[in-house]
Design goal:
Largest interface: A-B, 43 and 37 residues
Structural class of chain A: mainly alpha
Number of domains of chain B: 5
Largest sheet of chain B: 6 strands, antiparallel
Number of strands of chain A: 0
Oligomer: heterodimer
Radius of gyration of chain B: 37 Å
Strand content of chain B: 5-15%
Number of helices of chain B: 29
Order of helices and strands of chain A: HHHHHH
Number of domains of chain A: 1
Number of helices of chain A: 6
Chain lengths: 146, 653
């Protein structure tokens, strides 16, 4: 029942996303092309990220989007002309920056849990050591079986 | 221990150990004595054997001297001639030699004037004080000075009648174990006096050629008068007196008061007929039985053969047909039948009980006969003391007390004894025997029944510990000599329980010491009480021993630092030698309660810590998930922040 109830909602979002993308492609094709290229690593991450909530894809998309704000505004300023869009795509700094940001997002999404785990383990082991010391003290003082 | 030339009794009488007087003690070792206050040297000290307790009641009741008897003047412990722990009873010295070596026929007048009257008078005075002599025999009756009256020797340094030969004892006493003859009655002294009179009248010992067993058998078969006097010619007055004094039934003998007037005493004639004799003998073991009293003796002394003879029906048949006593036969048959219909529990005890009843029925004068041992109930105490090293005898006596045999015996002859008193004593003895713990059982009963018996603990074997006041110093010396010894063994505990008051009895009943853990709080409490009451001086060796052995007591505390502190404190307190502070430190109820409460709290804390550590150990997966979630959130947050920053920068231009 839960899977049946959840499935239509996901489909409706996909339809909305498809509708939005279709509208962008129809109304501003240069913008759609530019965003499609700049956000390509994010799209690929969405496709390949199988974790719940797609945390890696989310970070990659956010970082890619952050790096795409400036080219998008530049294209918007150039009237969303296809030439301007192709010119921007031809500029390696624009594409490189966007893809590098996406890569940085991926790296961040991969490393942040590891670093967090290291920190968490360090805190836990410190607490365990303190508890063990307390226990040893109690055992020594009261002679309980260790 | 070095031999001393003299030792003091009661801080007054110097016992001259170098001057033994072998003939003065009536068979017991005796020594010359000098009174340091008056300078009197006409005294002797009779040495007591360690396992033969002196007669406490006689020593107590004879504080005032009696003419014609060597009454006790003082008594107490002192080292013996070989340096061993000894105990002496001081008496006046005998005025002359014992009669043993000077036997000759005495004329009638001398017998009356120097033997019968003075000794009867002495016995009368003894009886008035509730004491019997029970040691009238040739080696314990002494010649007076220059034709004066005879003097009875000391009879207080051993159990009553312990050293009496069968000749001077009535059959019902002679058949008993020497230590179990009991105080008896003054009639038994009259009997012995009768034998003495007869011996002196004849100028020789009757039946001298027979041993004690043969003399006893002869007395049973012929009656004492028939056995000892027979066809002997005696002066008429002496013959009449002896006939009465040697009566089988003590109630038929003249009293000492009556004997002081021989003319009246002789007029009380007593029939001295020999007991009825059967036409044929009944073999019981090695004895050919011809009469009923010998039958009782035979089945009493050889219990196994006696039981067999009774259960086979041969005895009843012999009584009925051989002896012609149908009434007695029916009575014995009843006892045997009653036994065979009893529940088959405690088979051997039931047989022994049946035998005891049969013996009492056949011979109402007979003592309590139990599995081959004959005794009078008031002789149980000394008999227990003597039997201490004999497990078989000890077991027999334990059974006897356990089934209250004395009460059953007294019920069968209630007209001859105080049944209710004996029943109460039997119950009391059974209760004492049943006391549990190291301080109970037979040792305790032995000490209770023998007020002057010294403690038999191996720990104090080199001392005469007869009072509780002697215990602390003796234990201190023993522990100082051998620190590996245990200061409170079962004998010492039983001795303390028997000699102590109700408070000490409570402490001794609480004793729980084991070989592995010899000193607990109850043991320490008892030792501390003994020191407090009887020896308020330091006992450093004992205290050091307790400090060393207090590990298990210290371990009762939970807190380890407190244990160490307590152990250190015990060592410090031990140096002072006082046990009460050590007890207080170990016992400390308030401290122990607080310690227990703190231990409970610590245990709870430990449980919490263990639970927390367990949670940490089991939470690795959860932490990994958490770290992943937080890391992803951080990454997303960083991405979002970058996006927001870029948008802001774009907006701001």
């Amino acid at each position: 029942m839960r899977s049946m109830a959840g499935t239509p909602r996901r489909h409706s979002l996909v339809w909305l996303q498809g509708l939005g993308c279709g509208a962008v492609v129809a109304l501003v094709p240069a913008m759609a092309l530019l965003l499609g290229v700049l956000l390509l690593p994010g799209v690929l991450a969405v496709l390949y990220d199988r974790q719940g909530g797609r945390p890696v894809a989310r970070t990659v998309l956010l970082c890619g989007t952050a790096a795409s704000v400036s080219p998008t505004l530049a294209l918007w300023g150039a009237g969303n002309a296809m030439d301007a869009g192709l010119a921007l795509l031809g500029d390696l700094r624009v594409v490189g920056t966007a893809w590098s940001a996406a890569a940085a997002g991926w790296l961040l999404a991969e490393l942040a849990p590891v670093v967090t785990l290291v920190v968490l383990e360090a805190v836990t082991q410190t607490r365990a050591a303190r508890l063990r010391a307390e226990r040893e003290k109690l055992v020594a003082e009261w002679g309980f079986d260790s | 221990m070095a031999n001393q030339p003299e030792v003091l009794i009661a801080d007054r009488y110097a016992v001259l150990l170098a001057q033994p007087m072998p003939e003065a003690g009536g068979g017991l070792p005796a020594f010359a004595v000098k009174d340091r206050q008056s300078g009197d040297t006409a005294l002797i000290a009779v040495q007591v054997r360690r396992d033969l307790p002196p007669r406490a009641r006689a020593l107590q009741n004879l504080a005032v001297p009696i003419d014609g008897v060597m009454t006790p003047l003082a008594y107490g412990p002192a080292p013996g001639p070989r340096g061993e722990a000894g105990y002496f009873v001081v008496c006046p010295a005998p005025p002359g030699p014992p009669l043993t070596g000077h036997l000759h026929p005495w004329p009638e007048a001398a017998l009356i004037a120097h033997v019968l009257r003075p000794i009867a008078l002495a016995l009368e005075k003894l009886a008035a004080r509730g004491v019997t002599h029970r040691a009238i025999r040739l080696d314990n009756v002494f010649a007076g000075q220059r034709g004066q009256s005879l003097v009875l020797g000391s009879a207080w340094a051993a159990p009553p009648a312990m050293h009496q030969p069968a000749l001077f004892e009535p059959p019902y006493s002679a058949m008993c174990h020497p230590a179990g003859r009991g105080d008896g009655s003054i009639a038994d002294d009259v009997y012995a006096l009768g034998v003495l009179l007869l011996t002196l009248a004849l100028g020789r010992l009757p039946l001298a050629e027979l041993d004690d067993t043969a003399i006893l058998r002869r007395k049973l078969e012929l009656g004492t008068h028939g056995a000892l006097v027979g066809d002997e010619r005696l002066p008429p007055l002496i013959a009449d007196l002896v006939r009465g004094m040697l009566a089988e039934d003590p109630e038929h003998r003249p009293t000492p008061t009556l004997l002081t007037d021989p003319g009246v005493a002789r007029s009380r004639r007593v029939a001295a007929r020999p007991p009825p004799r059967a036409q044929r003998a009944l073999p019981v073991g090695s004895i050919a039985v011809w009469d009923s009293r010998t039958l009782a003796y035979a089945v009493a002394t050889d219990a196994e053969q006696g039981i067999a003879a009774l259960r086979s029906g041969a005895t009843v048949q012999w009584l009925r047909r051989g002896l012609g006593d149908s009434a007695l036969a029916a009575k014995v048959e009843d006892f045997v039948r009653h036994r065979t219909t009893e529940a088959p529990t405690e088979e051997s005890k039931s047989d022994v009980m049946m035998l005891m009843r049969v013996v009492t029925a056949i011979d109402p004068l007979a003592p309590l006969c139990w599995r081959g041992v004959a005794l009078w109930p008031d002789g149980l105490g000394p008999l227990l003391a003597v039997a201490a090293g004999d497990p078989a005898m000890t077991g027999n006596l334990e059974d006897l007390i356990g089934v209250e045999a004395a009460a059953s015996w007294a019920m069968l002859r209630s007209e001859r004894c105080d049944y209710s008193a004996l029943r109460m004593e039997a119950r009391q003895q059974r209760a004492w025997l049943g006391t549990r713990g190291p301080a109970g059982g037979l040792p305790r009963l032995t000490y209770l029944l023998n007020p002057l018996l010294p403690c038999a603990s191996p720990l104090v074997a080199d001392r005469w510990v007869g009072r509780l006041a002697d215990v602390p110093a003796a234990v201190e010396a023993a522990i100082a000599a051998n620190p590996k010894a245990v200061p409170l063994d079962p004998h010492l505990a039983a001795f303390t329980a028997a000699r102590g008051d109700s408070r000490l009895e409570t402490d001794t009943n609480a004793l729980t010491g084991t070989r592995q853990n010899p000193v607990g709080i109850p043991e320490l409490r008892l030792l501390a009480q003994l020191q407090l009451r009887y020896h308020p001086r330091p006992l450093p060796a004992l205290a050091a021993w307790i400090a060393g052995a207090s590990g298990p007591l210290v371990a009762l505390w939970f807190n380890r630092p407190r244990r160490q502190e307590l152990a250190d404190r015990m060592r410090v307190l031990a140096q002072a030698g006082m046990l009460m502070p050590m007890l207080a430190a170990l016992e400390d109820p308030a401290g122990r309660n607080a310690d227990a409460a703190a231990a409970r709290q610590a245990a709870a804390e430990l449980s919490q810590l263990d639970a927390a550590l367990g949670g940490i150990a089991a939470g690795a997966g959860q932490r990994r998930d958490t770290a992943a979630r937080i890391g992803q959130e951080i990454a997303a947050g960083a991405g979002l922040a970058a996006l927001a920053t870029m948008i802001l920068l774009a907006v701001l231009g």
